[in-house]
Fold:
Amino acid sequence: MAVNLENYAKKCKVTQGGIIKAYIFPFVFHKRSLIKDDGMSLIEFPNTTIFEFDTVGNYNQSSSVESGAVSFEHSANLQLSEVYDTFLDINQLVNNDFRVIVETNNKQLIIFGTRNGMSCSASNATGQNKSDFNGFSLDFRGKEEKTGLLISSLEDLGFTVFVPNASFQYTFDFNF
Structure:
C-alpha cells in the first residue's frame, strides 16, 4: 500500500494537545464479530454504559515490531480532582482492566483498550501550594494490534453516558 504525500504541505498549527474528558468502563470480553472497525474508526460496539469524567491529561501511542508482528502500546494519563471519598473507589480501578475513551481538546473521541483492555495504576497527591494539583493521577496502559480507534458519536455506537456526581456512590463492578 503506497502512502501519497504529494499534497501534504507544512501548515500552521491548528490543533491543541491534551484531554478534556475521559469515559471509563470495565473491560468485558466480546467476540471479535461484535466489535468492528474500518481503518482507524470504530464502527460497531456492543451497547455499553460508560462513565464520564472531566479531566486533564494526555495519551500516547507507540508502535513496535516483534517477530514481524506490529503492535501498539497505548497509555492514557488522567488527573481527576475532587474524587477522594466522594464517589469513586480507586481500589476498583487498580484491581480490574478497563477500556478508556478520551475526548481531546480537538473534539476527537478515541477508544483505547478495544480488544485487550488496559490496566490502571493510581497515585494520590496534594501538591505543596494551593495552585498545585490535588487528586488522583490514573495511568492506564495496554497493548493492542491497532492504534486507538476514532469514534464519530458515542450515542450512535450504543454507548450510554453516565455522569457521576457526589450524591451517587458507586464502584466499578456495575451491578445496577
Observations:
- The two ends are 47 Å apart (CA to CA).
